[in-house]
UniProtKB/TrEMBL annotation:
It is found in: Cell membrane. The chain crosses the membrane at residues 21-45, 175-199, 227-254, 274-296. Residues 57-159 form the FtsX extracellular domain. One of its GO terms (biological process) is cell division. One of its GO terms (cellular component) is plasma membrane. Keywords: Cell cycle, Cell division, Cell membrane, Membrane, Transmembrane, Transmembrane helix. The keyword Phosphoprotein does not apply. Belongs to the ABC-4 integral membrane protein family. FtsX subfamily. Residues 183-300 form the ABC3 transporter permease C-terminal domain. Part of the ABC transporter FtsEX involved in cellular division. This is Cell division protein FtsX. It comes from Protaetiibacter intestinalis.
Length: 302
């Protein structure tokens, strides 16, 4: 009987403040969608870092006649052999997993294959390329050992850790993730304020009923419960919609488009979205319960 009365009060609150309830649902939906997207983006960044950093190589670029630092001279065969011997030496044996030498012709052919159909491939000439060594390490974090060992050897133009090329990409993705978190935070604050306002309006519209309930001895908890449930239910609807949106984004955009068109990359999947969905529902319900509880208690004390 008491449960039926509480649910009846919740239904009345929804009907009397329908526009505010819809606003709470929409704001919660948008804010938690941004929050979920930020979480998924962080998961994607972590996955991509693990995937690419494990495959990152140290590239040793040998001199060509167009490089000023090399005094306009190509690396000689003796210099190339010296670098090869250093990479194969016992000193570096514990760090180097494989070494692949790429001639000028091979480097040019690979570039043409990778950028086939683009203006870069049409403008590139073989004179722009030189021989290089692609060094795969057991532990990519120890690339400094190779860089220090090879840098400065005769015929060496540059020794580059490929992870340095990937870092700007991850920085941009991190910035996008932090931006989404910031927007989500602002929207969540808006949702909390809307929930509080909705609860206060609902309580004000039923002030006579509340006064009667107090006169007949109803406890504060019994009076507060319907209002808290109003906020939680409205927020839960928005949270469920946000969870569905996050799952749909991963299903249709990430696995349905990105994974099919960029097969050389590692992407998050539906299982990651399904892990994030309960978090969104929990965050939405918790924020709604806290804000509604504080709002109705302040109103009853006023």
């Amino acid at each position: 009987m008491r449960l039926g009365l509480i649910l009846s009060e919740v239904g009345q609150g929804f009907r009397r403040n329908l526009s505010m309830v819809v606003s709470v649902i929409l704001v919660t939906f948008i804010s938690l969608t941004f929050f979920g997207a930020a979480v998924l983006l962080q998961l994607q960044i972590g996955q991509m870092k693990g995937y690419w950093y494990d495959r990152a190589e140290v590239t040793v670029y040998m001199c060509t006649d167009i490089v000023k630092a090399c005094d306009g001279a190509d690396a000689t065969q003796e210099q190339i052999d010296a670098v090869q011997a250093q990479l194969d030496s016992p000193t570096l044996a514990d760090f180097v997993e494989t070494v692949n030498f790429e001639s000028t012709e091979e480097a040019f052919a690979r570039f043409q294959e990778e950028f086939a159909g683009s203006s870069l491939a049409e403008l590139a000439t073989i004179d722009s390329f030189g021989p290089d060594f692609q060094v795969k390490l057991y532990d990519p974090n120890q690339s400094d050992v190779i860089i220090d060992s090879i840098t400065g050897m005769p015929g060496v133009d540059e020794v580059r850790d490929q992870r340095a090329l990937l870092q700007p990409i991850f920085d941009v993705m991190n910035a996008a993730s932090y931006t989404a978190v910031g927007i989500a935070g602002l929207m969540l604050v808006t949702a909390v304020l809307l929930i509080s306002t909705t609860i206060r309006l609902s309580a004000f519209s039923r002030r006579r009923e509340l006064a009667i309930m107090r006169l007949v001895g109803a406890s504060n908890r019994f009076i507060e419960t319907p209002f808290i449930l109003e906020g939680v239910l409205a927020s839960l609807i928005g949270s469920v919609l946000a969870s569905g949106a996050v799952v749909a984004i991963v299903h249709f955009f990430v696995t349905g488009y990105l994974s099919e068109n960029f097969t050389n990359y590692s992407f998050i999947g539906i299982q990651d979205a399904l892990l994030v969905a309960p978090i969104l529902v929990g965050v939405g319900a918790l924020l709604a319960a806290l804000s509604a509880s504080v709002a109705i208690r302040r109103y009853l004390k006023a």
